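Final report, Chapter 2: Outcomes

The project's central promise was a pipeline that accepts a single protein chain and returns its three-dimensional structure in a standardized token representation, suitable for archiving and comparison. That pipeline is now operational. To close this chapter, we reproduce one record exactly as it appears in the project archive, with the input sequence first and the structure output second.
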Amino acid sequence: MNAEPDKDRTDLDLLRQGDDLALNRLIARWERPLFAFAWRYVQNTADAHDLVAEIFVRLYHHRSNLRPDTKLAAWLFTALANLCHNHHRWRSRHPTVSLDDAGVLETTENAHPDPLVAATPQPDAAIDRDEAMTALGAAIERLPHELKVTVLLHYYEGLSHREVGAITGHTERGVETRLYRARQRLRNELAVHLSETARS
């Protein structure tokens, strides 16, 4: 997660004044964390890249409308979360085969930016771990939008309850409540998965 709000404010101010190079600096700082969030939301590398590119296009087009005290992190993640949600709904109505699912794009150059990926374990452990991660990913995928965004921002992007609240428009207590509800749903879904796996 980006931790340079002063640089963001400076570059945002320069961008509003017509310094297009400021956009390049903002992209350099924010492209990676935004892509990580988008990929975890839409589960597709090409779509995630497109969504992040669209966010920077929107930032450039709206540069003159942004207030000097705009919190860039909140603006970027809020806009991206909404874009991901709309894209996900469109994809659910127009399903296609994902190249990511087929393993076509899974190479060392563009592997998924998942911080939970560790060193290669033993084969049996790797299979169990992959199945558990797949089940967890699928369970997160099925969460309602608000819970999904809260989980991704807090657990994957490492944002505090206050930072998540600034993006989602909820109080810190509201964020805690949503995280609790998300954990309960995930726990229940994974318990069903484990039970089915044990029976098989």
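Archive annotation: The CA atoms of residues 189 and 195 lie 10 Å apart.
This record, like all others produced under the grant, will remain available to the consortium after the project formally closes.
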